[in-house]
Amino acid sequence: MRARPLATAAVLALTTALLTVAAGPACPSATTAASDGRPATTRLAGNTEVPVRGGSARFDAPPALFAALRARGVAVAEIDTHGQVSPHHSTGGMSLGIRSGAVTNSGGKVGGELRFTRAGIALINIKTKKVARVTGFVGNLSQGTLSAVLNRGARITLGTFTRPRINASIDTEAAALRMNTGVTVTAAAAARLNAALGTTCFRGGGPLLHVRIDASLDPSVDLPTALNLGHGAHRAGQEDQEAHDSWA
């Protein structure tokens, strides 16, 4: 008399198996099994951090600020990666390498971070011999801030900038981030710079730097997918140039 219970159990097992196969996974998972058996997180499109593999940036003082510095006897000189101040005065700018960082799509605008080489710029008051050494630049692209170390002390937020749209800043053909923007000095940084130099050249909310960035992105990444560029991806630069022209 056990034939009926056994047959019923077999039918139930087969039905359960068929329903499981037909239904598939209960819901899409953010994790998948890695080759070594450990769970591996799968990033969603548009939320991926694309590594920065290098690049360069140009930092220039706006003409009006540079003229004000010169009028007050403040010269500008570059600092190399070893911390040595150049004996030759600059024309108001410097070139920095980009050593690392990452780029993301943050609400349709450029996000992430750029870390520049340890070189920097020195502001020298010729009359008083006071020097403001500004090194260790870091650009927080998600917050639109530029920070640095002043005279080897604590890191300060030098200024802020308008975050550009991600579609207008990514060159998908060259795998590059291109930005052309103005940096406005914060009130705290203006006070610190003035105190270090013994001047009144800097005013909170005034133009501090014009920055041109050309950062190389990981060429193995599918940028339109990783940064959720959609159909708006194109060669970057035109929109940023218009923004710079209006800022200058």
Summarize the structure.
24% of the residues lie in helices and 41% in strands. The protein has helices spanning 3-23, 63-71, 166-169, 187-197, 223-226, 238-247, and strands at residues 31-33, 39-41, 50-60, 74-79, 85-89, 93-106, 109-116, 120-125, 131-140, 145-150, 155-160, 170-171, 176-185, 207-217.
Distance between the termini: 95 Å
Average pLDDT, all residues: 81
Shape descriptor: elongated
**What is the β-strand count?**
14
* H-E string: HEEEHEEEEEEEEHEEHEHH
User: Which bin fits the share of residues in helices?
Assistant: 10-25%
Count of alpha/pi helices: 6
The biggest sheet amounts to: 8 strands, antiparallel, barrel
User: Which consecutive residue ranges, at least 5 long each, have pLDDT under 50?
Assistant: 1-45, 238-244
Q: What is the percentage of strand-forming residues?
A: 35-45%
Calculate Rg over CA atoms: 27 Å
Q: In which order are the strands of the major sheet placed? A: 3-6-7-9-10-11-13-14
Structural class by helix and strand composition: alpha+beta
Care to describe what's here?
There is one protein chain. The protein is of the alpha+beta class and 248 residues long. Helices cover 24% and strands 41% of the residues. The protein has helices at residues 3-23, 63-71, 166-169, 187-197, 223-226, 238-247, and strands spanning 31-33, 39-41, 50-60, 74-79, 85-89, 93-106, 109-116, 120-125, 131-140, 145-150, 155-160, 170-171, 176-185, 207-217. The strands form two sheets. It has an eight-stranded antiparallel beta barrel with strand order 3-6-7-9-10-11-13-14. A two-stranded antiparallel sheet has the order 1-2. It is elongated. Residues 1-45 and 238-244 have low confidence and may be disordered.
